[in-house]
Amino acid sequence: MAPARVGLGGVRAPRGWLGLAFLGVWLYFLSQLSQLYREAFAAAAGISVPDATDVLRLTSNLGQILFLAGVGAALWRANLAAGLSSSGVSGLVIASAGVGVLALFEVVLFLAWFGLTGPVGALGDAYAVGSIMGVALGLGGIAYLGVGLSQAVGLFGRREDDVAPRTPEKMN
Question: In this structure, is residue 169 part of a structural domain?
Answer without folding.
Answer: no
